[in-house]
Amino acid sequence: MRRSSYLFITLALIFSGGPALAHYPVNLKASHNIASKSPILLDGTISFAVYADLNKAKDKRSVRFALKEGDDLNVEYLIIDAAPSNRLKSSQLPGITITTPSGKKIVMKINERSPFYEPYGKKNYFFLSRISQSAEAGIYSITATAKTKSSAVIAIGRTEIRGEYLEVGSSAGKCPRTLKSEEMISEARASQLISMSELEAEVCAAANSWIYRIGERDGEGFILTKDYRTNRVTVSIESGFITKVSVG
Known about the structure:
By secondary structure, the protein is mainly beta. The chain has two helices and 18 strands. It has two domains: 5-165, Jelly Rolls; 172-247, Trypsin Inhibitor V, Chain A.
């Protein structure tokens, strides 16, 4: 059974000089306070609107997303034109930091407060910062850090198609929480890939820094190296879904 969530259009953001673009909403929870426990957007080129409600100073919310070589990194930082965020000075609003797959930190500096009206939800927003550049391949993370009680909206990607994300947890079909150091993957953690789609499993493995390879697809076995790697998973795929996983 598929464990990823399908997100439906509820928000349209009007970009300067362009048409209205729809973003699929993801609401971050209090448990998403560090990147290793945060949801993972399977494709960071698809348009998502990530909402973070921060209750007090130093409160944090994180989200992750995957990009491939040749993709563009497109991120916008916004707030809803509503209290308390719209009453705060730029210096009081949440800090937004992007971490690239190679570990580089990109701070989204607030350099505008451009208003626009979103007709679908009938809400007013402000753009605060925008980044568009060539992407690294791998898993990005974004963390919002509060300076006081506030909210933030992080718009990721631009392609208007149905979006999917992986939830993190310890049950089957959920991506295991990322560990700081994992020289040996446990069979229990590896088995959580079973029932995922091929893309979900590949993204989950990348988020955990696992080496990922396909051993069998629809009954056809592939020639594999005989070396044993404790940080590698080998998967079997049937009709696009993971049916078996082994470590090594």
